[in-house]
Structures are given as C-alpha cells and as structure tokens.
C-alpha cells in the first residue's frame, strides 16, 4: 500500500501538529474539519472558573452545538459527539480551541490507533502478559479480547504484504 504525504492547506500550527501525529488518512479527515472553522461562530454562554461553555453555529444559523471547554485539564466536549464516534475532534470543538488560542491538539484527543506511532508498535505487544488470566474470564470477555487483538493485528498487518499473508 503506497502512502503519499498529506498536503497542508494552510500553515497553521494546529494543522502542522496534526500532520506530525496523525496518519495521512486521518490527517485528511482532521484537516476537512479544521478548514471550515472560519465559517463558524462561537458565542460564550457561561464561564465558571476555568470551564467555558459555548454555542457554536454555522454563520449564525439557528442550529447550535453546545461545546464545553475545561482549560485547566484541556478537555473539550461537543454535543455532536463526533469525537466519540470518529475519534477526531469536530469543527465545533476546533472552533472553540481556536478561540481559546489552543494551538496544538490536546494529547487526550490523539488516539493511538490514528497516530503514526501506532504502526511502529511491535507485534509482540499483542501477546497477553498472562494468557491464563484471559482464559479464566467469561466467554464474552474472551471473545471481546480476541476480537480486539485480531483487529489491532489486522490494522498493523495491512501495511505489509508479508504480514498480511501471515495474519
């Protein structure tokens, strides 16, 4: 599988950071979210200590998304729940981070499975430290463990023909 280097559409620190940490495919998805934040408006609803609440809308359209940002521990939550489903921050959250002058993606929101470092992990990582403990669990937990392990192995193996054949 041949990968091409992603192309930054603007020299913005947040995008540069995303390009450094994300795989090219995920960077492309992230960049699509980021480049539209200029068309969004974030209105502060409330502030209590270091927690800010914003309503974010597209060019003032009536539909709004509630975004909470805790500056103390750099956590952000948007009502659209894109991060929960896709694993990348949504445009609403990115708009608030931009408004708060956050220039790098908080580490909490860089999922290992989307990072360039995930591919560098050694397959031995997937061997259970104590296989006997896994065997003693319920059938549901064993099944879940096996599925998770196979998914991770498939993700790593897909980049190399030899590893794909082995998997």
Automatic annotation (TrEMBL):
Residues 65-101 form the SWIM-type domain. SMART domains: ZnF_PMZ. GO terms for cellular component: nucleus. Pfam families: SWIM. It comes from the Eukaryota. Keywords: Metal-binding, Nucleus, Zinc, Zinc-finger. One of its GO terms (molecular function) is zinc ion binding. It is found in: Nucleus. InterPro entries: FHY3/FAR1 (IPR031052), Znf_PMZ (IPR006564), Znf_SWIM (IPR007527). GO terms for biological process: regulation of DNA-templated transcription. Coiled coil: none annotated. Belongs to the FHY3/FAR1 family. Putative transcription activator involved in regulating light control of development. This is Protein FAR1-RELATED SEQUENCE. It comes from Arabidopsis lyrata subsp. lyrata.
